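Hi everyone, sorry if this is the wrong subforum. Our group has a chain we'd like a structural model of before ordering constructs, and none of us has done structure prediction before. Sequence below.
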Amino acid sequence: MDLELAAVKFLRKLVKESSVSGQEAGAVKLAAAEMRRLGFDDVWQDETGTLIGVLKGQLPGRRVIFDAHLDVVPVTTAAAWQCPPFSGDLQDGRVWGRGACDNKGSLAAMIIGLAAVPRSELSGTVYVVGSVGEEIFEGVGLAPLVDQLKPDFVVVGEPTDCRLGFGQRGRTRILFRVSGVAAHSSSEDQSVNAVYAIARLIRAIEGHPLPQDTWLGHGIQAPIELISNPYPSASTMPVECRLIVDRRLVLGETEESVLSGYQPVLSLVTGASVELDRTDYTSFTGYHISSPDFHPAWVTEPGTPFMRACIQALQQAGLPAELYTVPYCTNAAYSAGALGIPALIYGPGSIAQAHSMDEFLEVSQLYQSLKAYQTIARSVGKVA
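Answer:
Right subforum, don't worry. Here is the predicted structure as tokens:
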């Protein structure tokens, strides 16, 4: 079967497996069967549930991971979708459904495309990874594998409109707390009402200056969750209010620098505190992790040997090699952000389609990414 048609067919099958985070077993089983059918040298699943397929080149070279996450975000208002969200319908040159763009198109192109590269044209070892849990906690499925395999380079498939993503903003969730005093809500003294206090804190946070760097621009902060305690309240002033702020990070920001940066804000509100929020994830295998939700920013500069090889390989293959820094966070936050392993983000589809209703992937971009992954795999294993 033609490789492009095979990639479309496989993507449609993947979309039909709902694979919401923590429920990826069906998609892992399907992808593992496809890897075995295509003759991968080894296929296995680790304790997190992440799937690994191995392609051993006949030439000496580097260890390269190609990763795309298998999990998807939940569907809302399914009845309002143009096509059923897990249909995998093919219409108007697009594959429709949850995960078609984010991120099963990348995985389909990697599995189908890289399996077709003759081993005589591969240097080193290529690992094709279908990781779990990314939508809950970036890197939760890939990080243990990076520690185990110690790759030289990592290629992360995410929707970049087939542009070369050479860096990304990081991400963290920050938890602010403000204390109050419980009292009847009819009390004339509202000075210890935690809601008023958290309102003052939010205004101060809004004016808090954020760092910037040349590659990634300004940091971003977005209050996304606010709750009082007790909730619901029976005519009782709250003893505490909690605010979650989603912070998008730039280069050089650490857990310590982010938290210490908010100290001037805290000083304006009595009883206010700040800490990193924690994220819990449990895989379908039972693997569980609870960790501070912090994922650093990173850049692999275009002049590095790895990036130069990727750019030149695409150009020589007649493919666009537009450079791009992605505004969102990916699994590379661990490999590149924490460990400094050179990384690239590349994949079909637009981030505007990710998590959206009527998600779809243009088939033409699926074809382009398939060829690009093959081209990159032939090249980067030879990087000195």
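For your construct planning: The chain has two domains: 3-169+297-380, 170-281. Residues 363-380 form the longest helix (18 residues).
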